[in-house]
Amino acid sequence: MDLHIQNVIKNYGAVKALDNVSLNIPHGSLVCFLGPSGCGKTTLLRSVAGLEDIDSGQIMLGDADLSRTPARSRNFGVVFQSYSLFPHMTAARNIAYGLECRSWTKAQIATRVREMLELVHLSDQAEKLPAQMSGGQQQRIAIARALAPNPSLLLLDEPLSALDAKVREELRNEIRALQKRVGITTIMVTHDQEEALAMADVIVVMKDGHIEQTGSPQMLYQQPVTSFVADFIGRMNILPLDKAGGKGLQFADKALKLNHSDAHGSSPVSKVGIRPESISLLPASQAASDDNHFPATIRSQIYLGHISRLEVVPDKRPDVKISVEMHGALNKTGDMPQTGDAVTLHLPAEALRVLA
Length: 356
Ligand SMILES: Nc1ncnc2c1ncn2[C@@H]1O[C@H](COP(=O)(O)OP(=O)(O)OP(=O)(O)O)[C@@H](O)[C@H]1O
Ligand SMILES: [Mg+2]
Hints:
Elements: E1 3-12, E2 15-25, E3 30-34, H1 41-49, E4 56-61, E5 64-65, H2 71-74, E6 76-79, H3 91-101, H4 106-119, H5 135-147, E7 153-157, H6 165-182, E8 186-190, H7 193-199, E9 202-207, E10 210-215, H8 217-222, H9 227-232, E11 237-240, E12 250-251, E13 254-255, E14 271-274, E15 280-283, E16 293-303, E17 307-314, E18 322-327, E19 342-346, E20 353-355
Helix pairs in contact: 3-4, 3-5, 4-5
The structure holds adenosine-5'-triphosphate (ATP) and magnesium ion.
């Protein structure tokens, strides 16, 4: 069943933690709430879980209105950032606990605990206490415990953020594979854009208690609608256009051509963005008079192995620093434009995005 979040408002005193949030979460999908600290991710997750009373709005699972249902009756599995396992119980007992509370029989519990330990590949850790397991193992047990009673929704609040980078990446893939196998609708809170891009079917970008944009990872990366989203997911050059001279868009004393589909009807365009990897650099004076080609100068370059990152300044707009990323077999001895070199900067029309 799909989860529908409708017009949810939650205030803490004067703080608008959730400012009229609406969202549909399709059955079986993994959705990430992504945004900076304090934007309302945890509040939204806790509201769905029933751990927070909302001021107004509705939370529906299919046709059932859960807005006033207490957390324990929602049958959702929840995992938090810090290890929330019972420290005095073994891994197996941690998983069994919720099932005992639900009056499962001993035989049912034994079978289920075995299944869950297999699911998270920790059958050999059944008798260990949390303190005897690594952080990654503890989080896998926490997920097994959350999934054991067959919840209709799995809610994860930054489950990986306390782990070191390598374990985080492994567990990211493992959780995603496990979620697909079980087919459970999952919401995961994160402030790590890479984690969201790697794991989610749908990313919900939040800011100041509201949703900025919702979409697939590809859509948010390729078609961000606001400069906040553009800059939060990946890196984006924001081009301040020349003060309106004639008609059309002007940048660095030239008309800037956009693709028609991106020119947003009649509303005036104030900001245009382009990803660093979508820009190309040509030898100076080559094609310099063509559309969207600008004479420019390299201000700096950093060699990073798999890419090089250059800062380029258009000659007619020395106030604008444009970040360019170049891939391929680049080296430090001449294949690359060097600091101080004159170049032609090409901003392809199809890569330019109009931003609100
Ligand atoms: N119990 C509370 N009492 C008062 N204010 C709160 C409470 N919980 C959250 N807030 C406020 O509500 C806003 C949203 O908080 P929330 O915890 O949802 O943010 P978040 O996006 O999860 O941030 P983080 O990435 O730091 O975890 C913040 O301004 C926060 O200070
Ligand atoms: Mg939080």
